[in-house]
Amino acid sequence: MKKSQRMQILIDLAKRKEDAAAQQLARDKAKVNYDEQKLNELKEYAKQYESERNLLGLSAYLTTNYQHFVDRVQQAIVQQEGAVGRSEQQAEMSMRRWSQARSKTKSMDWLKEKNVKAELAVEAKQEQRQSDEFAMRRFLDASR
């Protein structure tokens, strides 16, 4: 088996790893989008309740309960911001893994192509040598 053929096996394995890293990256980016959407919904929800509180004439007791509710929504926002940050970090790590896998695959492809060119050059030399030998034999046979 030629070196370039052996390299192709390694390239195929590297490509599978690269594809797996790309799929993980896509899942992580989708998670970031989902978490950001959830955060935006929570912020919109808090904003809506805050504006409604100002419009409603609530008693002191209801205002306190209302404020506790708004505070819990704010806590949920803080937690969701943390979730977004963690999702973004995970996506960034996945991006680095994919980038490294892609780089490795490209390097292996380049090395394989280099080996293919070297193999073709060796084959061309062998063919030329065989052709030269054949021509020399015909010449020697013709001169006898």
From TrEMBL:
It is a peripheral membrane protein. GO terms for cellular component: bacterial-type flagellum; plasma membrane. One of its GO terms (molecular function) is cytoskeletal motor activity. Gene3D superfamilies: 1.10.287.1700. It is found in: Cell membrane. Pfam families: FliJ (PF02050). It comes from the Bacteria. The keyword DNA repair does not apply. Keywords: Bacterial flagellum biogenesis, Bacterial flagellum protein export, Cell membrane, Cell projection, Chemotaxis, Cilium, Flagellum, Membrane, Protein transport, Transport. This is Flagellar FliJ protein. It comes from Marinomonas algarum. The gene is fliJ.
